[in-house]
């Protein structure tokens, strides 16, 4: 690699973690945020400013204690969205160690359900923050399945059509998220949830986020440093 390319790809400052991205003009985006979307975001951000997720951070084996980092991480914002919308059903793509699910579950209304999907069961993650007791009352459920697959997706249509919040934190490979969005288009016309996208500033997510035709809002400054987007699905 020549000196020019080394300089081009090297971060201009020393940081713990860096990713490549691109900046796009906003005026020529195919969709703009709605008044309702902005209002929801403001309420969620205000809640995030005051909330503590120290009890969730305490489940982690070592720092950084991400749930307590805000802005910069999205956990408090997710809690704010749930506290504001009070959804009866939440669907999450990408369970991993469970931090996002726990942040949302903490403010889930008593009669509501959070269904989280992953390709690996939560017990297989060595750093999982889940406990068996989290699943006892059936308000938190995990399925090990791939919602980006057209063959698998129809199995969960009834759950998805009830979702009021869908948090998409999947592979970020430029393929899985787009396939999931394509599958969502097969649902009924009454299906109008809010979608929260993680990592929208990552290279593989740039095109997917830009091409979403529904009202959307980039909330990166109040969410995850790698990008947080909110969509009003129509």
Helix share bin: 25-40%
Please state the second-level CATH architecture: 3-Layer(aba) Sandwich
Indicate the structural class: alpha/beta
Q: Per DSSP, what share of the residues sits in E-state strands of 2 or more residues?
A: 5-15%
CATH topology: Rossmann fold
Number of helices: 8
Using only CA atoms, what is the Rg? 18 Å
Broad CATH class: Alpha Beta
- Average pLDDT reading: 95
* Structural domains: how many: 1
Total number of beta strands: 7
- Write the CATH homologous superfamily: Vaccinia Virus protein VP39
Question: Could you give the distance between the termini?
Answer: 46 Å
Largest beta sheet: strand ordering: 3-2-1-4-5-7-6
User: Unreliable runs, pLDDT <50, ≥5 residues?
Assistant: none
Which geometry do the CA atoms define? globular
Sketch the major β-sheet. Answer: 7 strands, mixed
**H/E series, N to C?**
HHHHEHEEHEHEHEE
Can you describe this structure?
This protein is α/β, with parallel strands linked by helices. The protein has a single domain, classed as 3-Layer(aba) Sandwich (Rossmann fold). 29% of the residues lie in helices and 14% in strands. It is built from eight helices and seven strands. The chain has helices at residues 3-9, 35-50, 54-57, 75-85, 99-105, 157-162, 176-184, 203-210, and strands at 89-93, 113-118, 140-144, 165-168, 194-198, 216-218, 228-232. Strands 3-2-1-4-5-7-6 form a seven-stranded mixed sheet. α5 (99-105) links the parallel β1 and β2. The longest helix has 16 residues, at 35-50. The chain is globular and about 50 Å long. The model has no long low-confidence stretch (mean pLDDT 95).
